[in-house]
TrEMBL record, chain A:
PROSITE patterns: 4FE4S_FER_1 (PS00198), 4FE4S_FER_2 (PS51379). GO terms for molecular function: 4 iron, 4 sulfur cluster binding; metal ion binding. Pfam families: Fer4_6. NCBIfam families: FDH3_beta. The lineage of its organism: Bacteria, Pseudomonadati, Pseudomonadota, Alphaproteobacteria, Hyphomicrobiales. The keyword Oxidoreductase does not apply. Residues 4-34, 78-107 form the 4Fe-4S ferredoxin-type domain. This is Formate dehydrogenase iron-sulfur subunit. Keywords: 4Fe-4S, Iron, Iron-sulfur, Metal-binding. Transmembrane segments: none annotated. InterPro entries: 4Fe4S_Fe-S-bd, 4Fe4S_Fe_S_CS, ET_IronSulfur_Cluster-Binding.
Automatic annotation (TrEMBL), chain B:
This is Formate dehydrogenase. The chain crosses the membrane at residues 91-112, 138-159, 179-203, 239-264, 276-294. It is a multi-pass membrane protein. Its cofactor is heme. It comes from Methylobacterium oxalidis.
From TrEMBL, chain C:
This is Uncharacterized protein. Residues 39-73 are annotated as: Disordered. The lineage of its organism: Bacteria, Pseudomonadati, Pseudomonadota, Alphaproteobacteria, Hyphomicrobiales.
UniProtKB/TrEMBL annotation, chain D:
It holds the Pfam family Molybdopterin. Transmembrane segments: none annotated. Keywords: 4Fe-4S, Iron, Iron-sulfur, Metal-binding, Molybdenum, Oxidoreductase, Signal. It is found in: Cell envelope. This is Formate dehydrogenase.
Length: 198, 345, 73, 980
């Protein structure tokens, strides 16, 4: 069974935000909800690197474990999804998430923040595959169509890799060996407790 | 030429840059050009690349610049999320259970050994003295009812999914938790109000003094049968007062910081606040359990103080003799009480 | 007993008042994350539901956003 | 923990094999359908005024049944890389976008704009119906009323002030067919004032490079950069302007461990990936190039054999370069001597090397000279005409290359024929109209301002007014303008208005116009910033995703886009609007004689056939609609690096992807197109070529033809002039012409048959015969290091008009005042006044402007797309940390940026960063809608104001125009910044 992961090759990411708008386009994500975003580190100075970040679908996901209503579930290929019916919008998953992935429709105060929304690895949620209700709640379900997340498929320089963990690690390793440099698999130690040995 | 390097560039660059980056102002850009507006140049941006280990040496979280207004999103990796999860999912349940169950066991032990403290009859039994007026009782009960709901809904965050969900099923439990969250957030306000009122109303009677020291030395009359003097509030009750004030304030502050996310601090600050809120919460609950016990089951006649507000004069004489004298002196002109009856507790 | 009853009523009243005050001071994500240079008329309602509460099941009546034009997600 | 097995396990195994990183190539139709919602956007609004906001149709419902999803392919309408957009359409509504894995250019990828392009066709900020300004209020009118009123008013202005008083401002976002039609419309109307965005983009490149080796276009391609061992990116930021090109640049850098050198005043996101970053002062490109050449000539690293064979007058350059010793270069540009030596050595030795440039090189008063210096550096090191080398000019808009080719240029008719009589006669033949009738459409110009009068013929052959100075032609006194009357009416098609410098003067011009017509999917700056009260019309034009048509990408490949959805709301295609306008103006039937028009809609394919019939000079004759459509259907057959399809393929055998021009001869000859220009290692029939012999045969005793260098398999093994019937007769090749070809040639030649050239022979016979003999129709000449017909034959450094170094103006002044494009160019006096007024002291910060990846061009379209607008919500200025500290400016606060000319200022956010050097500031140029601190949102027609508005940088940019093309100078001016 595949173990789905994200890997952003920061030495190729040019912060063009294609991943962000591809996600917005594919799932009609509203203004203010940013399932994916690009952060530029060491901005403006030599050594600057940009990383595209959304939910990393962690191993033993912190969000899933702290959720007071246990509304998270991990699919067979390790995609961490959640149910918006059970979610009470308490925000604990945002405390626990090392990558700031959870988004809330209302951000004024803790009172009624609305149900959490996050990157679903284009795998929808606990509704019938490819149904309207699934689309309105969780967005489209590309994995059920045998495809991969649109953010990775449309990344302008093929920096954002998505797919089976070993396969994308292999791709990244080959690239680093061929080009002689690599700033490493960002976030992998925190998300998957292992990284790509380069 | 330069491209002949065999070593994987990352580690070399990391070591080299660590030295340079320490200067903080980015790599030392040599100002070799004449002092015109001539800009500086930079060696090899590819080799200078930052990486995770290097950035984690500089700061506990990795963050950068982002072009959208949501500045929280500029925080790329905060590993403290996992640490907070460790605390909240492994430590907290045990601490909570230990505190609360521990207190219940303690009280049960006390009850089955010491038993209920009986009302000692004397000639003054049967007559009443006003201990708490309407407002005091109103404040007490507002705070108390809110506290109970807050406690239950608070514990639900940790123990609900462990204890309740398997029983009533996820959907019902989710709806219940939703309401518990609303209750917790919205009843916190009357609770805070109540805390303030109680503090204002009873502060003057809760200043610790020598009488309390004596009271404590005497074990508060629970051990053996001596009845040390006590004013309106004995040392135990003063402890409860200050505990409620202190913990109440702490819960309010941490609660408010969480209620208005990112207004006061960033995510790591809020994690700390949540930790404090939980720890103090369970301690608060444990303490209040004891207060509830002593105020109801633990001592006969104590409940009336808050129930109707009028306690048995004998009871008052035993437990709060100095207070009774003062009261009677203050209302000596008043006909309703016979003078100088020894209070019975 | 009267004081207890009054206390409970007061608590609930203050609670409801607090919920009202908090919900009015509540801000949609699209308001919080748009600047003075932007006029967002239709922020979209997919994934967050018609009234931006996150639950999609609710009635499809009023749409968050400036005008009450029919739903455009 | 709830672990829930997902249904549809079976399909899961397939994708395990696919990782986004590998080109999966699987483009299976979505096996599910999204629920189709309300009727299609356009249709919903067709009749009813009530908009009925388009509810995004989602195809869902059970996976079993549902409406059919059709796949449509078109080309992204934003930048010139030419990414294929794969659209899923259900019931006429565009419901989704899929990666276009098959396209060899973008291989499934997109940038932010491409990935959000679906929103353009149902964006609710689109201009929805024709509007007219009446008493300062926008009122809705019907199309018929709009066309009638505009036609009448324009005709009235023509009677009163002549045809030159109406300015036709075209667009780089036209399809090829629309660009060609617009130039034809201008010609039939009778004016040469027909321009478009190339003027402020690569006009100096086209002039400079064409005057060096024949054609002014990218010599290689994005895909070919994968062969480069060294690449210098100078004055360009592809990471923001051409993101998908970075896929090829970075892959090439990784596969070949190539040197990637970025030379730019700003540490851009491209520089972040460089292996060497050189920070220079804005406006000092020539000293940097000469500095590099100084080291190259000093150490003899130049390619002597290449220079001897294929370059003329390199010695003149050696004389100029000798002046630029390393310390003088350092004094002027600020670049340390030894770094420039290292860069020069790498570029000259670690070949193949390519030089990539963009606006940073072109947008200067020395733009043409800059570009020629870049070409000379490539020539000196032999880095032209081979895989991995060449001048990789990254053009800007989606079809700026095609629109430039097809004549939206005040100096030429379509396909670079120029404005000489022979050119008009050629097109008169192709258009099948009498040359005399065309001549009668032009004004006679009376003698005025001390200049003698000009006949219709002379005016017909004189360049028009550039888009950088249309408002000067409105504001300046009549006698200074070299035409019958100042400009009275502006016909603006697809043009932003806020991307030209000196916006305050432009606004003055807008207010004085008698008629302003804006035809665009959005109202643009023209509708909002001026204070006009009436005689202003807005015509909704659909985007090129809503019509058929071809576009030429920066690498000269032509790609066909099919209609994805019908034009949204009441918008119409460019073709229909031009057809109805031409009919209203009385020359509709004459103009569309050779073009099929089906129920009021000109057929795009037929327009392209007419272009093929006339496109001999630039090899636009072989790209028939059928061949282009075959390429779009077989995209996956084209190789990633050579762009070539396998020879044995029945449909596209041997073709290069998109038949990059020149594609010689008639479509039937099936010339494959020329992937790499001037590549002598290939036979002409395989896309080989040499430098164009267009500057004559001999000068000052030296031959201008190549010396023992020729394209592979050429019958002539030395330099040869361009081919005419006269040359054919000398060589005896005229016998190879068929009877019909001879008939056409004799008809064309009339009494002077020898003059009929490869470019004017409509039969294509001369080209066919040339190909058979393995020779290049345009001759085999030498590239010119000395362009004697240009103002500075050998490029000379000249300080920008507003220079931070007054001390250098004495030694390196700008060119003396002169008259260009019918108006005075007083750059010299403005520079002198700036030095006298000590502008550099009170405006100490160099201001340069440039691109943002989320927006494009004037930004109206992309700032109306919420998915993009959300990412850049505020106009900003990048200011160096030390400069900010000196002025007490914190990151993210409001600041006033003031410009040196008449106290203009802009209120923007401060972005404190080290990206810009000390004393340098950067501002993007995509914003508009605020003007000197005032929010002008309410002046847009209701509901059509872009989501994000901001100050335009061109509110504070200044005077300064390139002598050859009238290019503006927004890349190097001065400003002062203070906290707001």
């Amino acid at each position: 069974m595949a173990r789905m992961k994200f890997l952003c090759d920061a030495d190729r990411c040019i912060e063009c935000n294609a991943c962000v708008t591809a996600c917005k386009n594919e799932h009609e994500v509203p203004w203010g909800i940013n399932r994916r975003r690009v952060v530029t580190l060491n901005d403006g100075k030599p050594g600057e690197r940009s990383v595209s970040m959304a939910c990393m679908h962690c191993t033993d996901a912190p969000c899933a474990s702290v959720c007071p209503v246990n509304c998270f579930y991990t699919t067979a290929d390790a995609v961490v999804l959640h149910s918006k019916d059970l979610c009470i919008g308490c925000g604990y998953c945002f405390y626990a998430c090392p990558f700031g992935a959870p988004q809330y429709p209302r951000v004024g105060n803790f009172g009624s923040r609305g149900k959490m929304d996050k990157c679903t690895y284009c795998a929808g949620g606990p509704e019938p595959d490819l149904s309207t209700i699934e689309y309105e709640k969780y967005g489209s379900n590309r994995l059920a169509e045998g495809k991969l997340p649109l953010c990775a498929e449309m990344c302008s320089t093929k920096a954002l890799l998505a797919g089976d963990g070993e396969m994308i690690a292999q791709i990244y390793k080959e690239r680093v060996i061929k080009r002689g440099y690599g700033s490493g698999a960002w976030g992998w130690k925190t998300a998957y407790r292992e990284t790509v040995a380069i | 030429m330069r491209r002949g390097r065999t070593l994987i560039r990352t580690f070399v660059a990391a070591a080299m840059l660590a030295g340079v980056a320490g200067a903080g102002a980015g790599p030392a850009l040599a100002q070799t050009a004449p002092p015109t507006t001539a800009p500086t140049t930079a060696p090899n941006p590819t080799a200078e690349s930052v990486n995770e280990d290097l950035l984690f040496k500089q700061a506990p979280t990795i963050g950068g610049r982002i072009s959208i207004p949501d500045q929280k999103a500029a925080n790329l990796i905060q590993p403290q999320g996992r640490e907070w999860r460790g605390f909240h999912e492994t430590w907290m349940p045990w601490i909570g259970a230990a505190a609360i169950l521990g207190m219940v066991v303690l009280l049960a032990l006390f009850y089955f050994t010491r038993g209920r403290i009986r009302l000692e009859h004397s000639e003054e039994s049967g007559r009443k003295i006003l201990r708490f007026n309407g407002f005091e009782r109103f404040t007490h009960w507002m705070t108390a009812t809110c506290f109970i709901i807050l406690a239950l809904s608070g514990l639900n965050y940790i123990f609900g999914k462990r204890l309740l969900m398997p029983v009533i099923g996820p959907d019902a439990f989710a709806t219940l938790s939703q309401w518990a969250k609303y209750a917790h957030v919205y009843l916190a306000w009357p609770f805070m109000l109540g805390i303030i009122f109680m503090f204002v109303v009873w502060l003057k009677d809760n200043i610790p003094n020598r009488i309390d020291v004596a009271w404590i030395k005497a074990g508060g009359g629970i051990i053996g049968d001596k009845h040390p003097h006590a004013e309106r509030f004995n040392a135990g009750q003063k402890v409860v007062f200050w505990m409620v004030a202190g913990f109440g304030a702490a819960m309010s502050v941490t609660g408010l910081v969480m209620l208005f996310p990112f207004a006061a601090t960033d995510i790591n600050g809020m994690q700390v606040m949540q930790g404090i809120h939980s720890l103090i919460g369970v301690a608060f609950i444990a303490a209040i359990l004891a207060h509830i016990y002593i105020g109801s089951l633990g001592m006969e006649g104590a409940y009336d103080a808050m129930g109707s507000g009028k306690v048995d004069l004998a009871w008052a004489r035993v437990h709060h003799d100095l207070w009774v004298e003062k009261e009677q002196a203050r209302t000596a002109s008043g006909p309703q009480l016979r003078a100088h009856q020894a209070p019975a507790e | 007993m009267k004081a207890f009853a009054v206390a409970v009523i007061c608590a609930v009243a203050i609670g409801i008042a607090a919920s009202y005050v908090l919900s009015t001071s509540q801000r949609y994500a699209w308001q919080a994350f748009s600047t003075s240079s932007a006029r967002v008329s239709h922020p979209g309602t997919n994934l967050v539901g018609p009234r931006w509460t996150g639950d999609v099941k609710g009635p499809h009546d009023e749409v968050a956003g400036e005008t009450t034009a029919p739903k455009r997600s | 923990m709830l672990i829930k097995r997902k249904s549809g396990e079976a399909s899961r195994t397939k994708h395990q094999a696919i990782a986004a990183g590998l080109a999966s190539g699987v483009l299976d139709r979505r096996s599910f359908l999204r629920k189709s919602g309300l009727a299609a956007g356009g249709l919903a609004a067709a009749g009813t005024i009530q908009l009925g906001a388009v509810r995004r149709a989602q195809a869902a419902g059970s996976a079993v049944s549902g409406d059919a999803v059709t796949i449509k392919k078109n080309i992204c309408t934003h930048c010139s890389v030419g990414c294929t957009v794969t659209a899923e359409v259900v019931n006429g509504v565009w419901v989704g976008q899929e990666p276009s894995y098959a396209s060899p250019i973008n291989r499934g990828t997109h940038c932010a704009k491409g990935a959000a392009i679906r929103e353009l066709v149902h964006g609710e900020r689109r201009l929805k119906y024709p509007m007219k300004l009446v008493g300062g209020q926008w009122t809705r009118i019907s199309w018929d009323q709009a066309i009638d009123e505009i036609g009448d008013k324009v005709t009235a202005i023509r009677e009163k002030a002549g045809s030159d008083s109406v300015y036709w401002l075209g667009s780089a976002k036209f399809t090829n067919e629309a660009s060609y039609l617009f130039r034809k419309l201008g010609a039939f109307w009778g004016t040469n004032s027909v321009d478009h965005q190339a003027r402020i983009c690569h006009s100096t490149t086209v002039a400079g490079v064409a005057n060096t080796w024949g054609y002014g276009a990218q010599t290689n391609s994005y895909n070919d950069i994968r062969n480069a061992k060294t690449m210098i990116i100078m004055g360009g930021n592809p990471a923001e302007a051409h993101p998908i090109s970075m896929q090829h640049v970075l892959s090439g850098k990784e596969i070949n461990r190539a040197n990637m050198i970025v030379i730019d005043p700003r540490f851009t996101r491209t520089a972040a990936h460089a292996t060497e970053y050189v920070r220079i002062r804005s406006g000092t490109d020539i000293p940097v190039i000469w500095g590099m050449l100084w080291h190259i000539f000093q150490n003899g690293w130049e390619d002597k054999e290449f220079i001897r064979q294929r370059v003329y007058a390199m010695d003149d350059v050696r004389k100029e370069v000798a002046k630029w010793t390393p310390d003088e270069v350092e004094r002027v540009t600020g670049v340390p001597g030894e770094q420039l030596k290292r860069v020069a050595e790498i570029f000259a030795k670690e070949k193949p090397s390519t030089l990539i440039w963009c606006m940073g090189a072109t947008q200067h008063t020395v733009g043409t000279a800059n570009v020629r210096a870049f070409c000379i550096l490539c020539l000196a090191t032999g880095n032209v005409g081979k895989p991995g080398t060449g001048a990789n000019i990254f053009r800007g808009h989606t079809n700026v290359q095609g629109a430039t080719d097809l004549g939206l240029d005040v100096t030429t008719l379509p396909l670079y024929y120029g404005l000489v009589e022979g050119a008009w006669k050629h097109w008169a033949r192709v258009w099948d109209v009498e040359y005399e009738w065309l001549q009668s459409r032009f004004d006679e110009i009376p003698a005025k301002g001390g200049r003698k009068a000009r006949t219709r013929k002379e005016n017909m052959e004189a360049p028009g007014i550039t888009s950088t100075r249309w408002f000067d032609a409105v504001n300046l006194p009549d006698d200074q303008i070299d035409q019958r009357s100042p400009i009275k009416a502006m016909m603006v098609f697809g043009h932003g208005g806020n991307t030209v410098t000196r916006l305050p003067d432009a606004i003055k011009g807008m207010n004085k116009l008698e008629l302003l017509v804006v035809a665009d999917p959005h109202p643009t700056t023209f509708a909002a910033l001026d204070a006009r009260q009436d005689n202003t019309y807005l015509l909704p034009i659909c985007t090129t995703l809503e019509c058929d048509g071809s576009r030429t990408a920066s690498n000269r490949s032509i790609q066909w886009g099919e209609t994805i959805v019908k034009p949204a709301f009441e918008s119409k295609t460019d073709y229909e609007v031009m057809y109805r306008l031409a009919t209203k103006l009385g020359f509709g039937d004459r103009m569309f004689k050779g073009i099929a028009v089906e129920n009021g809609l000109p057929v795009a394919e037929d327009i392209l056939r007419e272009i093929n019939r006339g496109g001999w000079s630039t090899g636009y004759c072989g790209q028939s609609p059928e061949r282009l459509k075959a390429h779009m259907k077989n995209q996956h057959k084209f190789d990633l690096v050579t762009l070539r399809a396998p020879k044995d393929d029945p449909e596209v055998g041997g073709d290069y992807y998109g038949l990059p021009w020149p594609c010689w001869g008639k479509p039937e000859i099936r010339h494959p197109g020329s992937h790499i220009l001037y590549n002598t290692n290939l036979h002409v029939k395989d896309g080989g070529g040499c430098f164009r012999a267009r500057f004559g045969v001999e000068r000052n005793g030296q031959t201008l033809l190549a010396e023992d260098s020729f394209s592979k398999g050429s019958d002539l093994t030395d330099g040869y002039p361009e081919f005419t019937m006269g040359v054919f007769k000398k060589l005896g090749w005229d016998k190879d012409l068929t009877a019909e070809e001879m008939a056409v040639i004799t008809k064309i030649g009339g009494n002077n048959i020898d003059a009929v050239s490869w470019a004017t022979d409509l039969s294509g016979g001369i080209q066919r015969v040339c190909l058979d003999h393995g020779v290049v129709p345009y001759g085999n000449g030498k590239a010119r290091a000395n362009a004697w017909n240009l103002p500075d034959p050998v490029p000379v450094h000249r300080e920008p008009i507003y220079t931070p170094r007054p001390d250098l103006v004495a030694k390196y002044p700008t060119r003396p005042d002169d008259r260009q494009f019918r108006m005075p160019n007083i750059g010299f006096s403005v520079q002198k006044a700036a030095v006298d007024r000590e502008v550099a002291k009170n405006f100490p910060i160099i201001l340069t402007s440039g691109r943002l990846v989320e927006y494009e061009g004037g930004g109206e379209e992309t700032r109306s797309n919420p998915w993009l607008a959300e990412l850049q919500q505020e106009m900003f200025v990048e200011i160096n940390t030390k400069d900010a500290a000196d002025r007490g400016i914190k990151d993210g606060q409001w600041v006033w940026v003031s410009g040196p000319e008449d106290g203009t200022q802009a209120k923007v956010k401060a972005l404190v960063t080290d990206r810009v050097g000390k004393g340098v500031a950067f501002m993007p140029f995509h914003f508009s809608g605020w003007y000197q601190g005032k929010d002008m949102r309410q002046y847009y027609p209701a509901g059509t104001d872009p989501v994000v508005l901001g100050e335009s940088v061109n509110t504070i940019t200044t005077y300064g125009f390139d002598p050859v093309t009238g290019m503006q100078e927004p890349k190097a001016t001065l400003c002062q910044i203070r906290a707001a």
